[in-house]
Amino acid sequence: MKGYKKYFGKKILWFLITLVFAVILNFVLPRLMPSDPVSAITGKLAAGMSDAAAVREIYEHYQEEFGTNKPMIVQFGIFVKNMLRGNFGKSFSQYPREVSDILATSVGWTVALQLPAIVVGWLIGNILGAMAAYLRKGFDKVLLPVSIFFGNIPAFAMAVILLVVFGVELKIAPLAGGYAADMIPNLSWPFIKSVISHYQLPFWSIVLISIGGQAIGMRSMSIYELNADYVKYSRFLGIKDSKIVGYVFRNAMLPQITGLALSLGTMMGGALVAEKIFSYPGLGSTMYKAVLASDYPLISACTLIITIMVLLANFILDIVYGFIDPRVKAAQLD
Amino acid sequence: MKHTLRNIFHSSKFVVGFAIFMFLLVMIIVYPLINPGSPLEQIGVGTFARPGTYVSLYDAVKTTPETLRIQDADEKRMANALTTEDKVAMLEWFSAVGVDVSGLEMDDSEGFLELWFANYDESAKPKGFTMAKRNYYKRLNRTVLDLQTGEALVVADPDNETGELVKIGEIKKTDYVNVGQVTNVKTLPLGTDNFGRDVLKELVGATKTSLGVGLVAGIVATALGLTMGLLSGYIGGIVDDLIMFVTNLFTVIPGFILLILISYSISPDLRGPTTVAAVIGFTSWPWTARSVRSQVISLRNRDHVNLSKLSGHSLLRIVVTDILPYIASYVVMAFILQVSSGILSEAQLSLLGLGPKTTVTPTLGLMMNWAMSYSAHINGTWWAYLPVILTITLISFSLNLMNTGLDQVFNPTLRD
Amino acid sequence: MKKMSKILALLLTLAMVCGMFAACGGSSAPAATEAPKATEAQAAAPAATEAPAEPAPADDNTLPRNETLYFAGQQWGPVNSWNIVGTNQNNSMAIAGNAGGYRSLMFETLFMFDFMSGEKKGLLADSYEWNDDLTEMTVTLKDAAKWSDGTPVTAADVAATWEVALLTNNGTGGSYKAYVDTVEATGDKTLVIKSKLNDAGKPVNPLKVEDFLTGTPIAQAAWIKTLRERCNDDPTAILNDKGEDVVWSGPYTKYFADEQKVVLVRDDNYWGQDASMWGKLPVPKYIAHNIYADNAAGELALKAGEVDVCQQFIGNIQNLWLEDDLPISTFYDEAPYGVCLTMPTAWYNMNIPVVKDNVALRKAIAMATDYEAIIANAMTNQSPTFAEVPRSLMNPTAGEQALYDHEAVKDLQWAGNDIEGANKLLDEAGLLDTDGDGWREYNGEKISLNAVCPNGWSDWQAAMQIVAAAGDKIGISIEPEYPEWDIMQTRFTDPSQTDYAIFMWSPDAASPSMPWGRCNQFLSSEFVGLQNNWSGNWGQYVNEEADKILKEIPLTTDEAKKVELYTELVKIYLTDVPSFSLMYRPNLFHAVNESVWTNFPSADDGRNIPPADCTDGYGIRALYELELVG
């Protein structure tokens, strides 16, 4: 038990240190960008003004409000203080909207798009990979190259191709947005239908690409396991094939589950490309716009969400593995 | 060594991947010899010229023609100017302005024209006709008016002194020139892009740059990853903890976001292909480091390593002679994957407008970026983006196929 | 056989799992929309209580297509505020100043600007009159004008709008406080606007006072009072207020807004149905704008008929009807398709010695640039050429073109792509390539410049690329550079920057004070040395003669004298070449899809409605004349 305590204690310590550094980086990185967001806001407001002194006043007003005229370290203090209270301040680029308000609306769309897409892509990929490993022969011969091909189509290319083929040419899928252009969100059947149909293209653009990689991974893992000594031994003992296969795939799944957990962690990063090409609302495009506008508070908040999600996923995995994986157990007892 | 190579080339997957890759390489080297010049030269003044062969009209006029009496030439001209849809549209106009069309046959083009000239009025606004529709009739009228020209077009040139037009020749409907005899003929197999550049030529140049970007990114990432992984795995302890901490930081702040932030911060005049490649390499080494580390950990307690240690060999020597050879195949595969992901990252970055800022060398990502910012994908100008997508996919497909082939050679259990 | 059944089992599981997740995918997506919906319910509530006559939101939640006019190209992010005093918002459909005239769907100005004729047409006001020395303007308001709560629009509202503008230094305050001294209500429906006077006791600029009439949305005094009270007169709080309870005077009001769209609904009690104004209500019941990620998405929607009016640059727009046979048209049915009101310009940075010292260099680059290629390539011919409209300080509209003497400056013009002429000019000026490396030197140093415009502004980037190519041909190294917009704007508004030698920016388009305002932007030294200079003369050019004339024009009423002065300015501009325009460009792009609505303004329909997207200035009249197709 002492081994566990030491193991988890060390893990937690490293996670905390990582978190602290990540928060610092999340704060510093956007602010290293060589532009002045206050000037951008001023520019928006000052369009058409020909009195330059008035423009200067506006500039100073916002510098004061955002605190960009204070030293970096003071700004960091304010940032951490507000962050602990869950307050990320006002967005520069969508001023005067609250950052938390912007995030609240985009996180929902991102989760709704990514979660099912990642899970479905993972499931289909793993099932195909397992089939390829088990059946070999023709199925494998076709599946492997096809998986490699699909896995290597860049995300933007897949999105563009789907858009052009199904949206522009065949006209069977909507082109942009999260729901029909002529609707007002509500909980009615037509609206849900519209959401689902708008969901199709971005969804498949993510799924189709992830299938390939997952299938290849699962296939390799399964083949390793199928050739493992314990399988040969079991066969020799005359244990039923179906039972052996059950063991094999369960073992092969372990690393794949790690992969799934990690990708669920990074999910918050959003499907930037899919969101951009299909005008789909979500965190990825929010963050991209924030970067282009040097919207520090928004960038920091977005990266912070991602950081925390990834850390959590890693942490949970480590803890779970600590309990279930005999190899980790053994390492602690050393 | 020889044996390994033979094995590698027996793997069908590796061979196919290798063949595709070699084909691309050969194209990069050979095509510029056939079609020399800067790949970024703007030859077209307009945007997006269709793929095809272009014949200089000026030279064609000056080429001696043959007279060919081709039966259906006139019919073709008529059918081209006045399609069936046009006739249906004319009927719609006739009925809107109340013209009797009884007895008018669909194939009676002359009859249609006669009625049209008698009844079309540009300023008329029949009820229910939209502006777009009226504009259509205006254009149709202009096209059919052109049909009214006589047997020959006159070629004239302004007199040097008086500026008056002097007839220097005429072009008859039966005049044909042989394409081979026209002085200037230009074939653009993939048309031109938004800047009026030859897409194929640009594509070849861009493939070269992108491969270079991938290579540099791959080398940087693999070198860094390998070093870090070796140190961390072999030395262990605090060094291991530190390096793992840094790789953890990289996972926590996803590489692509880091890449966006860094690229954005580098001033555009410094953001050449090599810089971008280095940045990509710098943000993608951690996973190589992690995998190398785990391999080294499993090696470091092997007997032969322990033996070396006991013999008092230096750290460097142990790493080079007792560890590296055992993970070499693995590192090669990791390198190939890094190259392929480097090329993808460049394309992805460029698509967001954060890729290499260069007007001297094309890259695949920049080509894609320009095509997308001119909405080529929704305007049906497939030649501006589809070949680019295909090339990127092929490069990365061939690299990964080779990788899978290698994997099967080095891990015999994976073989079919 | 055994194997077969296994495959079957695997496939079945696969199918089931997929089915299950597809179902989950479907239902989890709408769940996510609940969040925006909840906030929306709150947002919509005050609006509903304030306008009881408004029909309750329809039980079906779809906007009827034949009652809705869809827009694209105006709103690029979720609406952040309805506060008309605030001017911090991005609410482009309801609150947007525009150089072509204020967008008066929800909030109205005193007059509507018509950029085709240059006239100011009465909206909240009937008429205005200057006194003889242009120090006082008397404005009479329309009797019929009313707020959405039924109270009349009075002179006190205008005065309160000005007062809060000064207090908060919002857009109105910032734009006009240098020119407008006081706005006083002299009666219920009459008010006096006094010009700011300079040291000599003359009005600073009466033209800018006229801009006030068409550029300032009027807010209700009673609502401003509520706003100021709840913000304790704190300027920042006032500017940041979301203004959900705002009172409006225009024909439309807010209906719905979220991450994806903003919808305005017609106010059927709108005062403008009075015979003294429009005599009827605008035709579409809803005005909707979906928020698209980029131009491509907006263009796709236009092509699909999901958008009726599109304010986006669409390259080769003629292909939409020539090749795709879509019912799409523009104001003119042939190139340049739209009304160009401004000219994106390459500015020379006078902080860089070689640029400042050498007029010949500035002129040579301008002469060598291939404008034909820029217009064909960057603008896809949606601009008149410089052969058709010779370069000057004026936009291509007939009104502005008549303000200077074309013959008098004819000899100063250049055609472009004149490599020979440019080389000759440089040779004569002594800017030679002395070391034989192919590049010319100045004081022994290679002349090396850059040409800068924001990244992603594709047509401008194409133009900069062509300018750079011209440099190559005349031995001047010009490197195109596309920083992110955010970085570029930080630098070029800095009066001491030396990072950008040639950079692209656009002067203002059209307003009552044009073309004076634009000439001022091109030539006036009043902007030189100002920090955060968003206003004009970004290249820091100084010319005292020009300054003198620029001060004289606003006070000149004699038309012939005006022409003389403007001609003088054009002469200075073409001689000194402090900047050179690369193309003409519309202020608003205006492409319409007639799948649902028709009778949009066109050049030859005899109605003289400016192509201002049916929303801006006098262009809003188009909304009253729309018809359904068929």
Walk me through what this model shows.
The complex is a heterotrimer of chains A (334), B (416) and C (630). Helices cover 78% and strands 0% of the residues of chain A. By secondary structure, chain A is mainly α. The two termini of chain A are 13 Å apart. By secondary structure, chain B is mainly α. In chain B, 62% of the residues lie in helices and 6% in strands. The model of chain B has no long low-confidence stretch (mean pLDDT 85). With 630 residues, chain C is of the alpha+beta class. In chain C, strands 8-9-10-1-11-22-12 form a 7-stranded mixed sheet. A 5-stranded mixed sheet of chain C has the order 18-17-19-14-20, with helices on one face. In chain C, strands 4-5-7-6 form a 4-stranded antiparallel sheet. Chain C is globular.
What share of residues of chain A is helical? Answer: over 70%
Provide the residue-averaged pLDDT of chain A.
79
Distance between the termini of chain C: 65 Å
| CATH homologous superfamily descriptor of the largest domain in chain C | Dipeptide-binding Protein, Domain 3
The radius of gyration of chain C is 27 Å
Radius of gyration of chain A: 25 Å
The number of E-state strands of chain A comes to 0
User: What's the end-to-end separation of chain A, in Å?
Assistant: 13 Å
Name some characteristics of this structure.
heterotrimer, A: 334 residues, mainly alpha, 14 helices, 0% strand, C: 630 residues, alpha+beta, D-Maltodextrin-Binding Protein, domain 2, Dipeptide-binding Protein, domain 1, Dipeptide-binding Protein, domain 3, 3 domains, 7-stranded mixed beta sheet, 5-stranded mixed beta sheet, 19 helices, 33% helix, globular
